[in-house]
Amino acid sequence: MRERLGLIGFGAFGRLTARHLSAGFDVLAHDPAASDGEGLATLTDLATAAACPTVVLAVPVEALEATLIAIGPHLAPDALVVDVGSVKVRPAQAMDALLPPGVRIVGTHPLFGPQSGKDGIAGLRIAVCEVRAAKDARRVAAFCRRALRLKVFQVSPEDHDREAATVQGLTHLIARVLMAMEPLPTRMTTASFDRLMQAVDMVRHDSPAVFRAIERDNPFAAEVRERFFSLADQARGTAAKR
């Protein structure tokens, strides 16, 4: 009999998660907004999903604290809880503070989404962060490397967020501006412009909650954002000179 895995959240990323974990686990998913497991998971109530030996939290970062409070009473004493949020410092702090003492906790951030992972995830990247015990993070990292064939980076939540503030923060910020400028030219384009728009298209369908998490919940994002706008103002001044 295969091990059960509880999946809290069955949105776009939850479904992607189920697609790649259902080969090795019986996935029991809970999401009040979902009506069909799509052959990837069995939909169930929160208590049943949370009682599984491993529980993956695929909920928006802004909903994480309420989710932690809700699942706490139903978790097995030695359950493994893994989150997949886009930021790591505040979620790691919340999980450590709100989950029962014996629960094992690992923070992860798959550095891809439903769009970039639609043709498979082998070779893509994931960050794995220790929260309560290094051995749990090592085991999750090994699973991601061997079973999912992901390229794994074991980092602290702080180091993750510091880099993500630039890598994700600027990508989503620039994409948001370019989408606001649409329609943009599609006929006489350059290779560099086409690649820029490919980057926009990779995040175009991310939920507003993802943008809010990246820009508001990353403690390093504001500094990166202000530096970017300051340099953009300098570039605007240079461009206006005759």
UniProtKB/TrEMBL annotation:
Which EC numbers does the record give?
1.3.1.12
Q: Which UniProt keywords apply?
A: Oxidoreductase
PROSITE patterns listed in its UniProt record: PDH_ADH
Q: What class of enzyme is it?
A: oxidoreductase
Q: Which residues form the Prephenate/arogenate dehydrogenase domain?
A: 3-242
Q: Does the keyword Oxidoreductase apply?
A: yes
* Gene Ontology molecular-function annotations: NAD+ binding; prephenate dehydrogenase (NAD+) activity; prephenate dehydrogenase (NADP+) activity
Q: What is the name attached to this protein's record?
A: Prephenate dehydrogenase
Show the SUPFAM superfamilies listed in the entry: 6-phosphogluconate dehydrogenase C-terminal domain-like, NAD(P)-binding Rossmann-fold domains
Q: Which PANTHER family match?
A: PREPHENATE DEHYDROGENASE, PREPHENATE DEHYDROGENASE [NADP(+)]
* Pfam families listed in its UniProt record: PDH_N
Q: Which GO terms describe its biological process?
A: tyrosine biosynthetic process
Organism (species): Brevundimonas vesicularis (Pseudomonas vesicularis)
Q: Which domain of life is it from?
A: Bacteria
